[in-house]
Amino acid sequence: MSQSRDPNRQVPVRRVALEPTFESVPRHFAAGGDLITSHIIAALSAVFPDGEDFFVRTVRHYREQITDPVLADQVSGFIGQEVTHGREHRGFNTHLDTLGYHTKFVERLTKKGLAFRERHVPPIANLASTAALEHVTATLAELVMRSPQTQESFGHEAVRNLFLWHALEESEHKAVAFDVYRAVGGGERLRIFTMRMIRYGFAIGIGLQVVISLLMDKATYRPGKLRSSWRYVKKQPFLSREVWEQLKSYEVRGFHPDDRPTNDLVERYREELFGANGSIPLPPARTAVA
Ligand SMILES: [Fe+2]
Ligand SMILES: [Fe+2]
């Protein structure tokens, strides 16, 4: 039997060229120049590259134990996709940093924090964290792909493209780290305990980062700005009960990421983003050198 729950899962590594499109992104890029949403998106982007490097290391650690060629192939796709996400988000973070966000500082802090964790925590617990965080990203990815309101909140086309492309690939590989965790003997108790910690840790961590980031932005102190922004943000689907419950569903014994079907979304966005009229900018095709 395959170590992958879905042997037909395709995890393609795509070359994209989003970086030049970030140049025209303004400081408060989110829909209608929304203050808090811009800071939330910047906070997420700031932790992605080093978080994704951590995911890659934790899965790679077990690569030799993956004897099933199907899962081994999916692992290669997972690594390739995460490396590409990290590269594009680093580019976006560089631009955000020039606009006044402290994204590069957060990148350094994330890198140090995760390296500290890896020195003190056994590899299986780190892999459990990756599997849990992959459920967090898959949940957010599903929301981004399903909700026109969330897509609209990205405001600028370059930001929307970055997050939609990332969302598509998070959905494509959503069960890979999970299947590796199972294949190398990771148990249910550690898996569930890890998610319980991460669910709160992630929400509090990002929340704190957003508050600090807002305090450092002059626009926050403009009369009425924060209040009107909060009125907009509190209606956003990512703060809904459903998202929290979806995260929590991981804590049920026997859970598997594929229990929640998202193949329809994957098909749809493969076509919308990378089909004949796809919206994602691609690098020029390489020509063979004679
Ligand atoms: Fe990613
Ligand atoms: Fe991922």
Structure description:
This protein is mostly helical and 290 residues long. Helices cover 64% and strands 0% of the residues. The protein binds fe (ii) ion (2 copies).
Summarize this structure briefly.
The protein is an all-alpha fold and 290 residues long. The protein is built from 11 helices and no strands.
Q: What tags apply to this protein structure?
A:
290 residues, 64% helix, mainly alpha, binds fe (ii) ion
Largest sheet: none
Which structural category fits the helices and strands? mainly alpha
Helix content: 55-70%
What value does the average pLDDT take? 96
SSE topology string: HHHHHHHHHHH
Shape: globular
As a whole number of angstroms, the C-alpha radius of gyration is 19 Å
Give the end-to-end Cα distance, rounded to a whole number of Å. Answer: 45 Å
Strand fraction = under 5%
Cofactors, ions, other ligands: fe (ii) ion
Question: What count of helical segments does DSSP give?
Answer: 11
Number of strands: 0
Low-confidence stretches: none
